[in-house]
Design brief:
This protein is mainly beta and about 450 residues long. The protein is about 5% helix and about 35% strand. A hairpin with a 4-residue loop joins strand 14 and strand 15. The strands form ten sheets. Strands 20, 22, 23, 25, 26, 29 and 32 form a seven-stranded antiparallel sheet that branches. Among the domains are: about 35 residues, no CATH class; about 35 residues, no CATH class; about 160 residues, Jelly Rolls (Sandwich), CATH 2.60.120. The longest helix is centred in the first third of the chain and has 23 residues. It starts with 5 loop residues before the first helix and ends with a strand.
Length: about 450
């Protein structure tokens, strides 16, 4: 039989309230944090966001993957960036609006499938592409470098490259367009290393080059050189081939010519060395007759009492001659000094007789009268000193041979011929008067063509 006891009902209500409160407390407790435990209670999160607790507001915030793997995606408060504790592989597109930094390697296209490309967004998207076929990097637009660009291999520029500082390469630089140098110097081999320096010009029929030879210290072209303007320098060396002058090809001999030889043409452009001297003949000598041109007359010493005349008397040929005579019994001397210009085409003294002088004395004894010939070269040096010569009223000739005349005779300059004449009155000589006569003087020399 049930009793309607108010105290019983109050106890039951209190017990129910305690039980419900305990259940609420237990349900509010955190579950065990185990990455390997699967909680089937939470199947779907329909929220548009998930917030990881901000912690104490100063330490980094991270999302941990696995207890054993212990890899994390961390928000670094100090660096204000996200950090992955291990590699990040993106199979699709990685779009970055700010910065990407990596403490290790940043690999693009690690599966080696086709080209690898980095896109740079802007009003027009530009790319840095690694071409898997050619094995080289390619920029879709200009590259501007304010510092140095170093390359150990090949640098290929198919369009325009603006380099505001130095471009240094230890390998080759291939340019399909134009190289423009705004500064004063375009330097190759700036480290001044040993070996040749080569500048190669590509050509469909074969490359040609301009080389600076380190050994010979000169530039060498592998093909013809055509100069539309002026070309000047200390020397021009042509090792092989022909030289074209004004459209005409000439082939030079490979040997040095002898002195006073000239290059002659065979009519087909082949040049050889030829002698320019001609034999004695008309125009190869000068014949002077009293009075000699360009002549002065002077005494020698203090014994100069006498008379110098020019006459043609006594010669059947009608040839003039100088006569020096004196009434003194002691030797009296006088000189005929002649300046002769050496021809501009002078080569050497000709034949066996360089200078021929015709003379005559009144006695065969040089103590009574004599004629003496002396020659000074164009340098002013006494080159020939002849003997004192005498005849007995008969014209004779004296010669200064080419072997005697071995001084300096510069074409176009003047040499000096001095003739000394001695005469006296000598009763003991058999003739009261012993004059000295001088006739013609011939200078024979070989001349060059013409």
């Amino acid at each position: 039989m049930a009793h309607n006891n108010p105290r019983s009902h109050k106890f039951i209500r209190l017990l129910a309230a305690l039980t419900l409160g305990l259940l609420l407390v237990v349900s509010a407790l955190p579950k065990k944090a185990a990455a390997s435990a699967w909680d089937p209670t939470l199947l779907v999160n329909t929220e548009a966001f998930q917030i990881i607790d901000d912690g104490d507001g100063s330490s980094n915030i991270y999302l941990q993957f696995g207890d054993t793997a212990n890899e994390k995606l961390t928000w670094d408060r100090l660096g204000s960036d996200f950090e992955f504790s291990d590699d990040l592989t993106v199979q699709g597109t990685l779009a970055v609006t700010v910065d990407v930094s990596a403490s290790g390697a940043l690999t693009i296209n690690d599966d080696n499938s086709g080209d690898a490309t980095i896109n740079f967004g802007g009003s027009t998207v530009e790319t840095l592409n690694f071409n898997a076929t050619t094995g080289r990097f390619e920029f879709s637009d200009d590259v501007q470098a304010t510092g140095n660009i170093f390359g150990s291999g090949t640098l290929s520029i198919e369009s325009t490259a603006h380099i505001e500082s130095n471009l240094t390469t230890s390998g080759s630089v291939f340019v399909q367009g134009t190289i423009q140098q705004q500064g004063a110097t375009l330097e190759i081999n700036s480290d001044a290393g040993a070996g040749d320096i080569n500048l190669t010009f590509g050509n469909q029929s074969g490359d040609e080059s301009l080389t600076f030879q380190d050994t010979t210290d000169r530039f060498e072209f592998t093909d013809d050189l055509s100069v539309e303007g002026n070309m000047s320098g200390n020397s021009l060396t042509v090792t092989t081939g022909t030289v074209n002058i004004n459209g005409v090809a000439y082939s030079f001999t490979g040997s040095q010519g002898a002195a006073s030889t000239v290059l002659t043409n065979d009519g087909a452009g082949a040049l050889t060395w030829s002698s320019t001297s001609v034999a004695d003949g008309s125009g190869s000598f000068i014949s002077m007759h009293p009075e000699y041109p360009n002549t002065t007359y002077a005494g020698t010493g203090s014994a100069i009492v006498g008379q110098l005349t020019a006459s043609g008397t006594g010669l059947t040929s009608g040839e003039n001659y100088y006569r020096w005579s004196s009434t003194r019994s002691t030797a009296q001397r006088y000189q005929i000094v002649t300046r002769v210009q050496v021809p501009w085409n002078f080569d050497s003294w000709g034949g066996g007789s360089g200078i021929v002088l015709q003379y005559r004395t009144g006695s065969s004894a040089v103590t009574a009268s004599y004629v003496q010939l002396k020659v000074w070269d164009t340098a002013g040096t006494l080159d020939y000193w002849g003997n004192q010569l005498a005849t007995s009223n008969v014209f004779s000739q004296t010669r200064a041979t080419p072997a005697d005349l071995n001084g300096t005779y510069t074409p176009g300059q003047n040499m000096t011929v001095r003739i000394t004449m001695m005469a006296r009155t000598c009763a003991a000589c058999g003739t009261p008067s012993t004059p000295a006569d001088v006739g013609f003087m011939n200078l024979n020399w070989k001349t060059n063509t013409p």
